[in-house]
Amino acid sequence: MHELLSLNVRQKISLSTQEEELLKTFFIPKKLRKKQFLLQEGEVCQYAAFVEKGLLRSYTVDKKGNEHILQFAMEGWWISDLFSFYSGEPSVYMIEAMEDAELLLIKKDRYEDLLQAIPSMERYFRLLLQNNLIATQRRLNDKLSLPAEELYLKLIDTCDSIPQRVPQHMIASFLGITRETLSRIRKQLSSSHKK
Amino acid sequence: MHELLSLNVRQKISLSTQEEELLKTFFIPKKLRKKQFLLQEGEVCQYAAFVEKGLLRSYTVDKKGNEHILQFAMEGWWISDLFSFYSGEPSVYMIEAMEDAELLLIKKDRYEDLLQAIPSMERYFRLLLQNNLIATQRRLNDKLSLPAEELYLKLIDTCDSIPQRVPQHMIASFLGITRETLSRIRKQLSSSHKK
DNA sequence: CGCGGGTTTGATGATGCTCAAGCCCGGTGG
DNA sequence: CCACCGGGCTTGAGCATCATCAAACCCGCG
Which of A114, A122, A142 to substitute to test the interface with B, most B CBs within 10 Å? Predict the structure, then answer.
């Protein structure tokens, strides 16, 4: 059950065999069925979750009822609401399973314990956050500078696994456009491509 | 010269007096005059910079020549192109001083040395990245879900120091709208506010 | 005085949104 | 086996928001 996590950690730092065993003891396995929630708006985010299997998303809902997807998380990814997790404030995000999922959860105090017990995990999480920040900055910059069509093109050629598993209207929501607009863009692309 | 940095570090972790002295030895002081660049598009980003004084911005320039501001950095903030700094790839960002500035620079290999020499700095940078990620995610989510006017309102009541020091057209560029649109929004706000 | 940087204003147009309807397809139950 | 339903995708018409382009204005400064 913890294979992916170990692998993921060992890609960034090196651990002794004992440490690797110790690591596992900090996590709680949890299964989620499609459409179940790990976190709902207004709750305090208790866990950081590592995805062993399945696909989740985090999103907000605005006053008009529209959803805006902040993140997808598939096998080998982490998902949480960092702010709520850290501060203990209620969250504004929903985290939902888009497919049946198997997660490894860690609570905040256990997370702190883990960093004490295996100091090199500090480095692991730093690298994780760093990569995440780079990706988020890039996405923000794209959203600031590119029109809808180019956002879509950029998504499909940087990350082809997402479009495979995610329905169109959620891709639209991830890009910050409507499903209708995305549909039209795709139509136009496929027709201009054929000629 | 290193007061702000020490202060900033001590807010997140505790250091012995020796460590604090040691810390300083890793940084190169550097002054920049208004409109000078720390980094230009196409260069590899050699430094992470801590701002002791002044105000900088990082931005990209798109094909049409429009600028898109990713970040402002004032006293007590860090600025860099993380991706280029880490990977050694050429950067797509410009980093420019908007006011005369005093910086503390650290090179990549020295940065690695620092983490070796003072392991608790790993934690400092982790917390830094975490806060930065939270802020960037929030900004992205706002950009995905809010219209121009609300973006502006949100900016002025969360961060009043920016509008003080930054010309309007750069605020517009930070929000991802045009100067003209921002000007009209402000006009409309001030008139509706008076009544 | 004239220049440059920043802001404002107006006219026009494009991009993307809203609302409403229809379609496709796989699953379910009579 | 067929009818029906729901989820997701598409299409069209009209509209709102925001961008573009061009010009004028304001003001501090050499």
Answer: A122
Give CA–CA dist A113/A111, Å, rounded. 5
| Rounded-to-integer distance, Cα A76 and Cα A6, Å | 10
Domain that holds residue A153: 146-195
- Does A85 lie in the same domain as A129? yes
Res A1: pLDDT: 65
Closest C1' nucleotide to B178's CA: D19
Chosen domain end from A120, A144, A168: A144
Residue B135 in tokens: 């802020």
Same domain (yes/no): B125, B41: yes
Does residue B11 sit in the same domain as residue B99? yes
Q: Write the single-letter amino acid at A81.
A: D
Residues B28 and B73 in one domain: yes
- According to DSSP, the β-strands at B37-39 and B78-79 are unpaired
| pTM (predicted TM-score) | 0.94
- Total number of domains constituting chain B: 2
Residue B194, pLDDT score: 45
A150 and A125 assigned to the same domain: no
Q: Which amino acid is at B114?
A: L
A178 near B CB under 8 A: no
Write out pLDDT tens, residues B52-100: 999 999 999 998 889 999 999 999 999 999 999 999 999 999 999 999 9
What CATH code is carried by the domain that includes residue B22? 2.60.120.10
- Verify whether the Cβ–Cβ distance A143 to B139 is below 8 Å: no
DSSP B92-161: S-EEEESS-EEEEEEEHHHHHHHHHH-THHHHHHHHHHHHHHHHHHHHHHHHHH--HHHHHHHHHHH-TH
Dihedral angle at the C-alpha atoms of B57, B58, B62, B65, nearest 10 degrees?
30
